[in-house]
């Protein structure tokens, strides 16, 4: 039997440097026990010798002093940085245990104690908050001071010590810090900025590590953070993990089984195709992170509800996957990242057992797959003095979709890497829930929509039932009126269905499509009148106009809907919660109204030199052009407040602008019929024909002498039958 070899009295004084030891052999082994002080325990357990004169932080155990010492320290040397990070980590763990050990007394005990005990409780909360602030500041300084390359470089073994930074992050984002984080974020602290900065720092050290001789495969597990770091050539990683990489890879490492037990049987997992790694001959770095409790304190701003977080919460753990320097994103278009996420609320119900029914849980309408975007711009509604203010960063569903969803979990598919989670939305996920309008506004608006819808339907029926009105100009007006009816009905329905967000999404689509169609038909009518005056063309284009009038808005709305997952989530059912979405409706309509106004004014300036020579037709088109000019002015007048209201150009008077737009908009149908219908001599004659005949018989007048029909013909030749004045 080979004798057991051992070293005695070994102490580590530096990286790979050991002193004060002797070697020996033995064939018998006897143990003895001796109580060791806390200060000397690390000596006997192979820790670093803490010699205050030589230690970079003077062996201090006071977090405040450590924070002050960091200001003057030079951490460009790898050994100094590792010693500092390891020391601060141990001190942070000891401090957190010390604070956690001081529990608040129960209510019965509170009633028996005086003001001195209450002061102790206040001091305890202040101490916890102070420790958290100091630890956050320490992590920020460590990240800043060690962001550059180390001297003489980072060996793969060094990452084990450097990544002890994750233990500090684990303490900072532990469940006991949830309420404190709410207070800190109210004071301007940003948890996600801190988290992503540590992620970027960890990735930079992984990129900096020397993986030419030895590949990196490191799994770092802490109380609340799991980090897996890989560095190798893509071909080796593909060979090892093909066709998919899984994170966490349960079953391959017993450490994951231990983590699952500690985290209550966690089952979240990502599946990433190895083809995304590319074919580079240079080593690539992969870093995956999995957070146990960060979802309880993560920010909730998102592209759907903006900064309004009422009733919204993250209902899954947060998980991330990153590849540097680059990855093949095109691969994920056909073979996306699959993310399996547990519903934490439902899981807590199961853990609570029968008592779950007694606790009122938040209501959930839907869960959306979300990816954190550092570049997402969200309007900052808290800064009313600056309408252009935006908050950078937020959750977005862009590029992600739900593959499957049950009561207990949701499976997501995403076309990019990043940080992912599920956001649970309440039954009414709104960016801004506008108060109900005053009664007078509701009545005036309702009366306007009702009259507009009724007289528009009458106008459509009159044109449809009068063959004399089936000319090109009135067929354009017929389609314009149909689009106006669809618009008015959609707006009228908003007042009754705005709180049903799925119906609201449908109404948003109707408003978007019919209003754009109305604007396009207005331009078509302007173009037709222009062609009639300038070229003398008054017929033969209706089929082309039909394709443009109904097809162009359909294509535009289809593109917007297909590219926008949060389409329709807006308090007044106006396209969406963001300015960009509402701009897809407001801006085209405003420019259409202005263009139509300018175009009609140009036609009015040429009324004295028409290509048409028959006086009756000139009078008809002359009158129609003037009425179109007035309608364009009304349309522009509607969308000036509309542009201000829906693009939120004046947030201080936002409700006033919206009321103005809604009132003007509700009477638009009345304006259309009065200006395009009653304002047309041809329409008046065709509709009032029987009354004119009655007047002729009654008064036996020769001045009123209608015949049978008035017909437009194509080209320059016109045939006039039955015009009402001879």
From TrEMBL:
Protein name as catalogued: Uncharacterized protein
Signal sequence, renumbered to the chain: none
Taxonomic source organism: Larinioides sclopetarius
Keyword Transmembrane helix: yes
Main localization category: membrane
Segments for region (Disordered): 96-122
Compartments, as annotated in UniProt: Membrane
Membrane topology according to the record: Multi-pass membrane protein
Compositional bias per record (Basic and acidic residues), positions renumbered to this chain: 106-116
Residue span, GAIN-B domain: 217-430
GO biological process: cell surface receptor signaling pathway
């Amino acid at each position: 039997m080979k004798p057991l070899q051992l070293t005695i009295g070994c102490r580590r004084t530096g990286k790979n440097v050991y002193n004060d030891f002797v070697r020996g052999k033995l064939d018998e082994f006897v143990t003895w026990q001796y109580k060791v002080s806390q200060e000397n325990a690390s000596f006997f357990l192979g820790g670093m010798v803490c010699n205050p004169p030589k230690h970079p932080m003077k062996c201090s155990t006071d977090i405040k002093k450590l924070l002050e010492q960091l200001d003057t320290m030079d951490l460009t040397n790898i050994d100094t940085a590792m010693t500092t990070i390891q020391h601060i980590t141990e001190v942070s763990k000891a401090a957190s245990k010390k604070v956690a050990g001081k529990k608040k007394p129960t209510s019965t005990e509170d009633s028996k104690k005086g003001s001195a005990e209450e002061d102790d409780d206040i001091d305890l909360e202040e101490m916890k908050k102070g420790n958290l602030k100091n630890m956050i500041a320490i992590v920020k300084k460590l990240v800043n001071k060690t962001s550059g390359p180390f001297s003489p470089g980072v060996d793969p073994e060094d990452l084990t010590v450097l990544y002890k930074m994750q233990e500090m992050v684990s303490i900072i984002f532990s469940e006991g810090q949830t309420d404190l984080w709410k207070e800190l974020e109210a004071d301007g602290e940003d948890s996600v900025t801190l988290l992503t900065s540590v992620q970027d720092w960890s990735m930079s050290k992984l990129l900096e590590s020397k993986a030419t001789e030895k590949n990196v495969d490191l799994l770092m597990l802490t109380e609340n953070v799991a980090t897996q770091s890989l560095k190798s050539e893509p071909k080796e990683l593909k060979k090892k993990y093909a066709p998919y990489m899984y994170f966490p890879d349960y079953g391959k490492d017993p450490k994951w089984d231990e983590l699952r037990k500690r985290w209550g049987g966690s089952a979240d997992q990502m599946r990433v195709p190895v083809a995304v790694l590319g074919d580079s001959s240079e080593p690539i770095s992969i870093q995956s992170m999995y957070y146990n409790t960060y979802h309880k304190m993560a920010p909730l701003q998102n592209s759907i509800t903006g900064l309004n977080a009422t009733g919204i919460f993250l209902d899954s753990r947060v998980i991330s996957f990153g590849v540097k320097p680059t990855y093949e994103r095109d691969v994920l278009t056909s073979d996306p990242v699959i993310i399996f996420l547990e519903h934490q609320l439902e899981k807590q119900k199961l853990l609570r057992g029968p008592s779950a029914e007694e606790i009122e849980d938040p209501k959930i309408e839907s869960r959306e797959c979300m990816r954190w975007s550092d570049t997402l711009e969200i309007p900052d509604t808290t800064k009313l003095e600056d309408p252009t203010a935006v908050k950078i960063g937020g959750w977005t569903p862009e590029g992600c979709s739900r593959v499957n969803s049950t009561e207990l979990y949701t499976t997501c598919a995403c076309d990019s890497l990043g940080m992912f989670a599920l956001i649970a939305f309440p039954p009414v996920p709104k960016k801004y829930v506008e108060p109900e309008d005053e009664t007078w506004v509701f009545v005036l608006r309702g009366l306007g929509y009702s009259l507009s819808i009724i007289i528009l339907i009458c106008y459509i029926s009159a044109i449809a039932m009068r063959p004399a009105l089936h000319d090109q100009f009135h067929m354009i007006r017929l389609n314009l009126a149909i689009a106006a009816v669809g618009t008015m009905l959609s707006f009228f329905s908003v007042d009754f269905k705005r709180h049903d967000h799925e119906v609201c999404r449908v109404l948003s689509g109707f408003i978007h499509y019919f209003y754009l169609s109305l604007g396009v038909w207005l331009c078509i009518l302007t173009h037709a009148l222009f062609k009639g005056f300038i070229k003398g063309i008054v017929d033969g284009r209706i089929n082309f106009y039909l394709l443009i009038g109904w097809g162009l808005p359909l294509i535009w709305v289809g593109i917007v809907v297909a590219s926008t997952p949060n389409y329709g989530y807006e308090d007044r059912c106006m396209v969406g919660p963001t300015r960009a979405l509402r701009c897809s409706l407001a801006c085209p309509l405003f420019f259409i109204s202005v263009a139509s106004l300018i175009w009609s004014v140009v036609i009015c300036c040429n009324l004295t030199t028409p290509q048409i020579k028959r006086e009756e037709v000139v009078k008809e088109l002359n009158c129609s052009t003037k009425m179109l000019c007035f309608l364009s002015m009304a349309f522009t007048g509607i969308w000036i407040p509309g542009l201000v209201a829906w693009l939120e150009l004046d947030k201080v008077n936002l409700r006033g602008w919206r009321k103005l737009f809604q009132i003007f908009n509700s009477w638009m149908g009345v304006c259309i019929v009065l200006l395009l219908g009653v304002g047309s001599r041809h329409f008046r004659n065709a509709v009032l024909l029987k009354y004119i005949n009655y007047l002729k018989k009654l008064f036996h007048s020769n001045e009123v002498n209608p015949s049978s029909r008035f017909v437009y013909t194509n080209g320059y030749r016109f045939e006039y039958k039955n015009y009402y004045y001879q």
